[in-house]
Amino acid sequence: MTQIKSFVFNPFSENTYVLYDETGEAVIIDPGCYEQREKDALAGFIEQNNLKPVKLLNTHAHIDHVLGNAFVKRKYGIDLYLHESDLPVLKAVAVLAPNYGMAAYEEAEVDHFLEAGQTITFGNTELEIRFVPGHAPGHLAFVNHANRFVIGGDVLFRGSIGRTDFPLSDFETLARSIRTQFYTLPDDYTVYPGHMGTTTIGQEKKTNPFIRP
Questions:
Q1: Tell me: the pLDDT tens digits for 138-193?
Q2: Which residues partner with 19 through β-bridges?
Q3: Whose CA is closest to 164, among 183, 139, 141?
Q4: Phi and psi at residue 70, in whole multiples of 5°?
Q5: What is the dihedral of CA 167, 169, 172, 178, to 10 degrees?
Q6: What is the dihedral sign for C-alpha 106, 112, 114, 115?
């Protein structure tokens, strides 16, 4: 059984996720921890539960989702995985961070590029990788079919969608991603988004005011 622990970090109220199972192996997705207390909260949970992080995954590379990449890589000695199309977005964070009062941001090198259709494994858990651009050019979602959930990043929210007014964002591309990669999942799949609370595929297909099936 795959367990999910979520944290809300940084001024953007970003959701950071730790996924783990009965083996104790874990992956950390989108570490937004910037302040020391946030880093301590993440590390404390991992230590208290005797977890062994084995991979660091980014759904995409906007600043709020990558602030803790360097900390996590250094703390646990694990590799960073990202889609290659989001590399320019990641590189831009070092320039943008001081503008948000985050001059202590540390860059982290990407170790592996992910592609749609690949599978991420840890412990007894498998995550299917889906390519869902629109909010960001290399945005990915991680789907666990055994436990019927998707770590969706900033694509589909409860009653909303990811912003498309950023550089390299595009509404029509996002809409296509949602319709072909999210709305094709069964209605009971839980969506764990990059901000705010969870929702389900079925709920958004019925009520989301921005993207209809």
A1: 999 999 999 999 999 999 999 999 999 999 999 999 999 999 999 999 999 999 99
A2: 4, 27
A3: 139
A4: -65, -40
A5: -170
A6: positive
| Strand ordering across the sheet containing 25-29 | 3-9, 14-20, 25-29, 52-57, 80-82, 112-113
Q: In the numeric block, which tokens belong to residue 155? A: 């694509």
Helix or strand run (H / E) with residue 5: strand 3-9
Phi, psi angle pair for 82, to nearest 5°: -155, 160
Report the C-alpha gap between 118 and 129 in whole angstroms.
Answer: 6
Measuring CA to CA, which residue among 173, 147, 63, 142 is closest to residue 107? 63
The residue written with tokens 């964002």 in the block is 169
Spatial CA neighbour of 69 closest among 131, 111, 100: 111
Angle at 19 between CA 1 and CA 105, to 5 degrees: 180
**Which amino acid does the sequence have at 172?**
E
Torsion angle (degrees, nearest 10) of CA 192, 196, 200, 206:
-150
Mean predicted lDDT score pLDDT of the chain: 98
Q: Which two tokens stand for residue 91?
A: 């590189």
Alpha helices in 77-141 (DSSP H): 87-96
> Residue 88: helix, strand or coil by DSSP?
helix
Distance, CA of 53 to CA of 178 (rounded, Å): 30
